[in-house]
Design brief:
This is Branched-chain amino acid ABC transporter ATP-binding protein/permease. It is found in: Cell membrane. The protein has 2 domains: about 160 residues, Rossmann fold (3-Layer(aba) Sandwich), CATH 3.40.50; about 70 residues, no CATH class. It starts with 5 loop residues before the first strand and ends with a helix. The longest helix is centred in the middle third of the chain and has 17 residues. It is globular. Strands 6-7-8-3-9-10 form a 6-stranded mixed β-sheet, with helices on both faces. A hairpin with a 2-residue loop joins β9 and β10. α3 crosses α5, α3 packs parallel to α6 and α5 packs across α6. By secondary structure, it is an alpha/beta fold. The structure holds adenosine-5'-diphosphate and magnesium ion. Magnesium ion binds next to α1.
């Protein structure tokens, strides 16, 4: 999509878990090349919103248009192959497996045959292509020197970067990051911010959930604020910083 063109439009999204309304009538748009922050207190419904956008959970109600296609109700696999990649708040790497193999799992998903069949009947050319892609993405996040280490031996911050490399193997149009800076040290956060800025310059659209407000305010073009499942405010970071309702619900604490 051309820079600034609409990539995703979520409307009237709702998710109920029994009597609990985790996401309540939430709507926003994301445009190509934008980095948008989704912020709010713990339990506000941010991760659930990610799960609705990526087909991990079925919405109770609402619509999600991605590049003009309705994807609400589509499978997670379909949405991923269309170009929406994500990381999880709780890192999901395969324990005991090398960093490179963990990243290559993301490249399998991009293959037409699907991850399982690709793993079972991989021909040499396909395998070479997958590992070349995995190396490329590991270089991109600055972790090539860790390729042959066991993933669980990395720091939590590095494991988050491995997840990002895996997501980048999908060559996503839209990248969703759930608390990518959590557990990162100062220098690692700065490196992550530079990486996300480069991805934005390449035209990628990024939606990120993050509690580190310095990180969020410096990096994002726009913010969506949630509180108790509902949308509290949307706007530019400097306007949101001065919004009394946002300060009261979240920033002031
Ligand atoms: P956030 O990411 O903003 O901290 P979540 O989206 O994880 O918030 O959670 C929103 C609310 O939904 C919380 O009250 C949480 O306990 C609840 N919730 C999340 N996932 C589930 C689930 N699978 N089943 C029941 N309740 C859930
Ligand atoms: Mg969360």
């Amino acid at each position: 999509p051309a820079r600034g063109a609409e990539v995703l439009r979520a409307s009237e999204l709702r998710k109920q878990f029994g009597g609990l309304v985790a996401v309540d009538n939430v709507g926003f748009t994301l445009n190509a090349g934008e980095v948008v922050g989704l912020i709010g207190p713990n339990g506000a419904g941010k991760s659930t919103t990610f799960n609705l956008l990526t087909g991990v959970l079925a919405a109770t109600k609402g619509n999600v248009a991605f590049l003009g296609e309705e994807i609400c109700g589509s499978t997670a696999r379909h949405i991923a192959t269309r170009g929406v990649a994500r990381t999880f708040q709780h890192v999901k790497l395969v324990r005991g497996m090398s960093v490179l193999d963990n990243v290559a799992l993301g490249a399998h998903l991009r293959g037409a045959a699907g991850p399982l069949s690709a793993a079972l009947h991989l021909d040499r050319a396909e395998e070479a292509r997958i590992f070349a892609l995995a190396w490329q993405q590991l270089h991109r996040v600055g972790l090539a020197q860790c390729a042959h280490l066991v993933a669980d031996d990395l720091s939590l911050g590095q494991q988050r970067l491995v997840e990002i490399a895996r997501a980048l193997c999908l060559d996503p149009v839209l990248l969703l990051l759930d608390e990518p800076a959590a557990g990162l040290r100062h220098l690692e956060k700065a490196a992550l911010a530079r990486l996300l800025d480069r991805l934005r310059q390449d035209g990628m659209t990024i939606l990120l959930v993050e509690h580190d407000m310095d990180f969020v305010m410096n990096l994002t073009d726009r913010l969506v604020v949630m509180n108790f499942g509902a949308e509290l405010a949307q706007g530019r970071p400097k306007d949101i910083q001065g919004n009394p309702a946002v300060i009261d619900a979240y920033l002031g604490t």
